[in-house]
Amino acid sequence: MVEARNNAAASFRIRTAQVDDEPAVVELDRLDTGVAKHAYWHDLFARYIGAERENRFIFVAESTPRKGRGEVIGFIVGEVRAWEFGSSPCGWVFAVSVAPDLRLKGVGSALFDAISARFRRTGVEKIRTMLSRENHLLMSFFRSHGMMAGPYIQLEKAFDGDGDGGERE
Questions:
Q1: What is the CATH number of domain 2-144?
Q2: H or E element at residue 2
Q3: How far is CA 17 from the centre of its chain?
Q4: What pLDDT does 145 receive?
Q5: What residues form DSSP beta bridges with 96?
Q6: Alpha-carbon distance 128 to 65, whole Å?
Q7: Which end of the chain is less packed: N or C, by CB atoms within 10 Å?
Q8: Hey, how many other C-beta atoms are within 10 angstroms of the C-beta on 130?
Q9: What residue ranges do the domains of the chain occupy?
Q10: How far from the centroid of its chain's Cα atoms is residue 154's Cα?
Q11: Which residues pair with 4 in a beta bridge?
Q12: How confident is the model at residue 5 (pLDDT cuts 50, 70, 90)?
């Protein structure tokens, strides 16, 4: 657990997520995306929470309470992956979010630092992510942490709706 205080009056700590953090993560994600993805997050928490998941991580930022637990004000999710198309093992960040009223107070940076440190402890030397070119908020966030375009290009194909799934006989 990491304690953090910011001059802008944000007081929080970073800790490993627990099962009962799921509703707060769903809500923070909904604030960003406009969609409450309960099934997605339930599945992800089931796959990522627990000591036996040594290369999968969910960290939350929690407001520092006077007693007990505080409110979840941010999260980051990632895992160490390897060998897709010859890629050496690296840390992948799949999602990051901070409560809108607490952005620019160091919460996201503390989450990024926590997952980066955990990735380094696994022995990987790089961290990657993928995001929409139109998501200027996340683009700025990741670039502020030294991330830049990598050696891979994302490709996609839209199905035209005629039932052609791309299968050839």
A1: 3.40.630.30
A2: strand 2-5
A3: 12
A4: 94
A5: 76
A6: 33
A7: C
A8: 10
A9: 2-144
A10: 19
A11: 12
A12: very low
